[in-house]
Amino acid sequence: MASFSALLVLLAFASPSLGQDPSCSTVKIAYRSKRLTEEDVPSLAVNGSDLRVCPKNSGKQCCSQRMEDRFTVWSKSDFSEAVPSKIEKLKDVFDEQAKIFDEYFEGLIKKSQQNLDRMFKKIYVNHYLENSKLFMDLFDDLRDYYAGKTSADVNSIVDDFFSNLMIRMYKIMNKDSQLSDSYLVCVSKQMDNLKPFGDIPAKLKQQVRKVLIYAKSFSQALFAGRDVVHSLRIAAVSSKECEYNLVKLKYCSWCKAMTTIKPCHKFCTDVYRGCVADLAKVNTEWAKYMKALKELLEKQNGPTNIHDVVMQLNLEISFAIMNFQSQDKLKEVKQKASEATECGSPGLTKRSTEDFFLEENNRERRESESPQRVDSSYLKTLSSDFTKKMRIADDFWSSLPEKICNDISVTDRGTDCWNGIGKGSYTSPDDRGEGDDVPNPTIRKANRKLEGLVDQLYAAINGDDVNPSGSGKEIIDVEGSSSGSGSASGEGSSDEVTTPDPTTTEPGNEIEDENDKGVAMAGGVDEEVLRVEHSSAQRQLLEWWSLSLTVCLLCIPLIA
């Protein structure tokens, strides 16, 4: 991969002179504000020939190698705060919207269950109270299907409910006859032929299955999308090359005694585009995923509205019961049942005056219940809020540099900004480069996950459930990490200047002094310095061990 810094070309109106502070006092003040010793800052501006990251061919400098090492540590911290924090906000949005929808649909099923219980207690009284578990189990089974806690499909759940309902009702309406359980079960298996509830079971199967698949797949896809974002947040780690360029972006201006100047916006986006180049490689699959999510949301608000279907279950089931109790249907069912030779003969039946599931004194009350359309405005509000909140996710990965730089850079196109070597304008070249074409393992895994989610969402749109079990609500950590790398470059309207590249050794641009050839650099920080700063515990242990060894050696002659 071409070096990021090698492509960072600036054409800028940049003053080679120092800022208005040759004594570097402003730099010392800024340095102290970071709670660091000002001894790292030169007392007076120096030629900066020993600098390894910041430009050293543009006049006097208020920087030292030690300061560059500090800058690199700060840049790594800046990246860790800027990039993962933006991604974390996106994850939080997904988590929030997934939980809101999940609570909404779980609440919808619960409210529909409560409505049926309240209505049937008034209309069917004792017959309902004696058989209420049958109805409550239906809602529990539908809830389990939505939550991915059962392998049963919606068709079998609805079929089992109406089959058991037919047995209960047939037994009640023939309670003066001795009907064996085996006979009742056999008759219930003839439902497709007998049609005691008319076309309502078939209608409910189609509608309920569709809305349950819509809701379940939508919820699962939101939680899974949250997990993808979570894995990419973990993978957002700065590369050493990225850290070098962040030093040039945010801290090399200190070397010119310009501690408060903000970087040019385009300069900033070029640098961060290189730092998060790997993350941008999910944008294609991400766009497909977002498109599929929105299409499924539209389906849920379509003619088969999930709110209306779930909330009118009590009315549809009550219509089914009324259909079975009609004189003509009851006579038809009994006739067909008697002709079903495989079930045997039920014997003579005597109709009871109290054998109707719907008690006579409640018939008028039930018939006055009209199938009024349930208000589904909350679903529309929910969908509208979802669309607004999720706008942050559109093109999130490709626009991530813009989101970060809007917070830290000059947003206008003027020249009052830091362009990498001085105060002036900055223009990107046409060819910036975007890092390696092949994404790292974490990015590849994220893309595969998104591809699978897109397939699942479109299957749901077409009425198919390709993921019958599992709720997907738990956050799943994805192993692996990505290191942002890439390139950024720019043009201005002055002499062409090449920013020093810490990975090259051209004359006047070396990153190592002649007396320091053996010291390996990591992001502009001398490894010896890092060992001193970050491994003090190991150093103290080594000193203790050396002291102990010395004492032992001194004791040997005395023992002898």
TrEMBL record:
Key word Nucleotide-binding present: no
Localization terms from the record: Cell membrane
Q: Where is the composition biased (Low complexity)?
A: 479-507
Q: Which GO terms describe its cellular component?
A: cell surface; extracellular region; plasma membrane; side of membrane; synapse
Q: Where is the composition biased (Basic and acidic residues)?
A: 360-372
* Species annotation: Acropora cervicornis
User: What's the protein name?
Assistant: Glypican-4
Q: Which PANTHER family match?
A: DALLY-LIKE, ISOFORM A (PTHR10822:SF30), GLYPICAN (PTHR10822)
Signal sequence: where? 1-19
